[in-house]
Design brief:
The protein is of the alpha+beta class. It has one domain (52-351). It is built from eleven helices and eleven strands. The protein has helices at residues 14-38, 70-82, 84-91, 100-113, 129-146, 152-159, 164-179, 240-247, 265-272, 285-296, 341-351, and strands at 45-49, 52-57, 60-64, 182-185, 199-203, 209-216, 254-260, 275-277, 280-282, 306-311, 327-332. A six-stranded mixed sheet has the order 4-5-6-7-10-11, sandwiched between helices. The longest helix has 25 residues, at 14-38.
Amino acid sequence: MNKKPSERARVPPIEIRAAMLEDLYKVSHEQQLRMAQFGQVKPEIAIKYSGYQFVAVGKRLLYAKEWKSFADFLIGYVPEVFDKKWWAAEIVKPQAERNQVCEWREAMRRYAKTQQPLPDGTYRIAHSGFSAAYLTFAYDLYVVEHNGRLDETLVGRLKNKDQFQGARHELFAEATCLRAGFRIEREDEKDRTRKHAEFVATHEQSGLKFSVEAKSKHRAGVLGRPGTPPPHDKISVNFGQLINSALAKNPPHALVVFIDTNLPPRAAQRLYAPRIEDCREIPSRLLMALLDRVAREHNGNDPYAMLIFSNHPHHYASPDELDPQRNLLAVSARNPAATVRPALHAFYTAARLYGNIPNEIPAR
């Protein structure tokens, strides 16, 4: 039965429809730009009320009067996660005994005080190594909590000075997987019948599952480790043991290993600088020797889906030195199945987003 004219939806005039279409395209474009910069994670949610800035993080609502930028929020965010009483007790410890992230935050605040503030009281400065270390850590922590994945076990390891380095790299792996559009499920560590990877990552678009491991290279005198750091020109670039340790877990799904090489910037170039052959880039001889050795130990096959080598040498800078160059290299198994390639590319694309942090708190 035909509707009466009065019952039909009223169609807006053509000029209003044109404006509506323009707005829709603008929103779509902004969403695409945001995804390209920050990945497939939930957008920031915030509101100002009664002189306070409120920011939603997962199921929590945090607030303060002094937050004028997203960096301001991140500065106050980590102590909230770690527990303010714990943080206050940590800060009064001798510098050498503090948790590393506490020292990064204090060094960042000291560095900011040497800079000239803008008229609105905020700062726009080139990041020192320590400020970049703190802010990238805080943002990865925020991404994981805001997307519903932060648990007390990981927070406990981050608060433990001896476990911080490995836990920090696992946090990077989790944040990367979330940015790449993966769903994360932790394995049951109470199951003692087999070894477990850090977590299982399911690609939302394809449904493919991957077992994810995060391995970080410890070095004497670096990131709170005991001992004296070796000379930068004599530092080890052999990571076979880390790869074999991940492979030994014999995970149920195709394995992706995040490897933190933890190298000073100059030494990192020995591993990461590519070679040019037939007008194309190929990995360095050091890295190819490592990959070939792993393959030989597994009957000539690459026993992983992807290795993601990263070097974030923030902590090798002095507290007031500019943030050093980072490195990233992803190596997929030779001749992977065509159905797996898009998901592996998503890992790599998201890992490149590390260090991208929003500047502003959304206005509302």
